[in-house]
Amino acid sequence: MTSFQIGIKPNRRAAGRFISNVRRAIQNAFLEEKELHGTTQSDIATKLGVHRSVISRELRGYRDISLGRVAEYAWALNREIVFAIPSPNPSDGRNHSPSFGTNIIINPRNDAKPWQSSNTASAYVSTYSVS
């Protein structure tokens, strides 16, 4: 039986993981708004001026999301985006230092400090790629 290996460069792997984590943060924020306020994909589509199927494809990963669209989702969900690219800390007990690290927090606009409250509706994503 033939076996194939697909090589993915570390920079493309980091980009893929980052995009996946951003999408997951948006999905989590949407689910929280759906549970708290009954927000639907149609509600978001109406606010953004697009068809509901566009929202569905973007949230499910069948269509790419631009940085502008990420900001539009945050606006439509009444959220604030906090973005940071911290420098790696090799002394935190890891075997390898991450070559790329990013933190993305999508908070409700009225609570910009998720670490102060345990019941904060926030989506926190951290992505690292080891070289």
Brief characterization of the structure:
This protein is of the alpha+beta class and 131 residues long.
Folded structure, characterized:
This protein has 131 residues and is α+β, with helices and mostly antiparallel strands. It has one domain (10-130): lambda repressor-like DNA-binding domains (434 Repressor (Amino-terminal Domain)), CATH 1.10.260. The protein contains 4 helices and 3 strands; from the N terminus they run ααααβββ. The radius of gyration is 17 Å and the shape is globular.
Tag the structure with descriptive keywords.
434 Repressor (Amino-terminal Domain); 3-stranded antiparallel β-sheet; alpha+beta; disordered C terminus; globular; 4 helices
Instruction: Provide a count of the helices.
Output: 4
Poorly predicted runs: 112-131
The backbone outline, from C-alpha atoms, is globular
For this structure, the CATH topology is: 434 Repressor (Amino-terminal Domain)
Main CATH class: Mainly Alpha
CATH superfamily: lambda repressor-like DNA-binding domains
Our count of domains comes out at: 1
Secondary-structure-based class equals: alpha+beta
Mean pLDDT: 79
How far is it from the N-terminal to the C-terminal residue, by CA?
A: 31 Å
Helix proportion:
40-55%
Secondary structure: number of strands: 3
* Main sheet properties: 3 strands, antiparallel
As laid out across the biggest beta sheet, the strand order is 1-2-3
SSE arrangement, N to C: HHHHEEE
Under the CATH scheme, the architecture is Orthogonal Bundle
Q: For the CA atoms, what is the radius of gyration?
A: 17 Å
The proportion of residues in beta strands is: 15-25%
